[in-house]
Design goal:
Layout: E1 8-12, H1 16-27, E2 31-36, H2 40-47, E3 56-59, E4 72-75, H3 86-92, E5 96-98, H4 99-106, E6 108-115, H5 120-134, E7 138-142, E8 155-162, H6 165-168, E9 178-181, H7 195-207, E10 214-218, H8 222-227, E11 234-239, E12 247-251, E13 254-259, E14 262-267, H9 276-292, H10 296-305, E15 314-319, E16 322-326, H11 333-341, E17 347-352, H12 364-370, E18 371-377, H13 381-388, E19 394-396, H14 400-410, E20 416-419, H15 432-444
Helix pairs in contact: 5-9, 5-10, 14-15
Length: 448
């Protein structure tokens, strides 16, 4: 393993993963410069930690003059590569790695990685808990929470890693022994030139795999199916809609895992988490867990115990006969479609937030079929109102708190009210968790 003692390294982006990469390289004896477009005080406040004095901090972007003498650039996922002097770096020969790539090169264990537009945190958590029932040393993190670089040098049996498209843009040798690709639907149009570029970033999860590796893939997803012929690993499919001789499929009320002559059945009724998207998530976790060696009884135990993650179709309360659900993590249209599909009841949908440039029109038909009303708030409400006009009664308000009060007036007994925004949170909130907590507070303040 190449180490960087005495080398000159720039880490671009001082979020949690950037700081973790900087600290790892500092421990290896590198000369580390940390760059961020925010002032140092703002960075330290957001991190809740001080940047060590041994790390040089630069407020600004990396320019061509800084390239001379650099041995490596580590790029944080929140920073697009377009903000780097890429041509100068190519001429210099300095590699550009993401924090995920750096962590992978330092990880002492096997890696199972999960990606997809939606569901990846749920599947990562499920798979991590399943793996922990079978192996004594399991790391769970990545985009989900703890950066992979924080596990460097420690002995692990498995690392279960959530990988975002932003992280996968800057991999080089990253090669999971088991990879799970859940879905590819439109998202992050504000970062990618087009949908094809976004899809290719997701497919990078599988790019370095070989014939001895495993790729668990959703064959109901048209974008994955169209690209499945390029996958070099052994493919383990899962499907909600069709029977499968190999992989995981739904048979009545059971999720069926088939591997050669072996067949295992896991009742759907085991699941505490609601919605068809979570049946898909469970099937993906079953396939991956069985292939890394988790015994069936441990898989069943985790499926039965798992309460779901906060802000992902999370039940908040029932008031005056109306059930309220928090799906603040539903930050794209694909997530909202999956969420709506899991509710047979009439729905009042609360949506809106920061406009990421995605097309809201795929929501039209589901809303026409099942929405009692739609309440729109935030920056994107105007465009959403135009694109969803004629589907259901629409109301527009400025804030989430107003949206909750308006939805309460529109809902009838037996209805479900769901916050599933189809937008990011950054117009009015720090993140989707902050938005979800604000929703929960507003719902709990309702009478009844």
């Amino acid at each position: 393993m190449e180490t960087f003692g005495g080398k000159n390294i720039f880490v671009v982006g001082a979020g949690r993963s950037g700081l973790a990469a900087a600290l790892l390289l500092l421990r290896e004896g590198a000369r580390v410069t940390l760059l961020d477009e925010r002032p140092k005080e703002a960075v330290e406040q957001s991190l809740g930690a001080a940047i060590p004095p041994q790390v040089a901090f630069v407020n600004g972007r990396m320019d061509e003059k800084a390239v001379f003498g650099i041995d490596l650039v580590v790029l944080s996922p929140g920073v697009p590569a377009s903000r780097l002097p890429l041509e100068a770096l190519r001429r210099s020969g300095a590699p550009v790695w993401g924090e995920l790539e750096l962590g992978f090169r330092r990880f002492r264990g096997s890696v199972a990685a999960v990606s997809g537009t939606n569901g990846k945190s749920t599947v990562t958590t499920l798979l991590g808990e399943m793996a922990s029932r079978a192996f004594p040393r399991v790391f769970v993190g990545g985009n989900l929470g703890t950066p992979l670089t924080e596990a460097a040098g420690k002995p692990f049996d498995w690392g279960v890693v959530e990988a975002s498209s932003f992280q996968l843009e800057s991999i080089d040798t990253f090669r999971p022994k088991v990879a799970v690709l859940l879905n590819i639907t439109e998202d992050h149009s504000d970062r990618y030139q087009d949908f094809a570029a976004y899809a290719e970033a997701k497919m990078a999860l599988l790019r370095n795999q070989g014939a001895t590796d495993v790729a668990v893939i959703n064959v109901d997803d048209p974008e994955i199916s169209a690209r499945a012929g390029r996958i070099p690993a052994e493919k383990i499919p899962f499907s909600l809609t069709r029977p499968l001789g190999e992989g995981v499929c739904l048979d009545g009320g059971e999720m069926v895992y088939r591997n050669g002559a072996r067949e295992e059945r896991y009742p759907r009724a085991l699941l505490r988490i609601r919605g068809t998207q979570n049946v898909e998530n469970a099937m993906a976790a079953i396939a991956a867990a069985r292939r890394i060696g988790v015994p069936p009884e441990a898989v069943r135990d985790v499926l039965a115990a798992f309460p779901g993650l906060p802000h992902r179709v999370e039940f908040v309360r029932k008031a005056r006969g109306v059930s309220w659900f928090n799906d603040s993590k539903g930050t794209n249209v694909g997530a909202v479609l999956k969420c709506l599909d899991g509710f047979p009841e009439p729905v009042v949908l609360i949506a809106g937030g920061k406009d990421k440039g995605i097309d809201f029109r795929p929501l039209r038909e589901p809303l026409r079929r099942k929405a009692r009303a739609v309440v729109l708030f935030g920056e994107a409400r105007g465009r959403m109102e135009r694109e969803l006009s004629g589907t259901a009664p629409l109301a527009t308000v400025d804030t989430l708190a107003e949206a909750v009060r308006r939805a309460a007036g529109l809902a009838r007994q037996g209805d479900v009210v769901i916050l599933s925004p189809a937008c990011s949170s950054f117009d009015q909130f720090r993140n989707f968790e902050d938005r979800g907590e604000a929703f929960r507070r507003a719902v709990m303040e309702l009478p009844g």
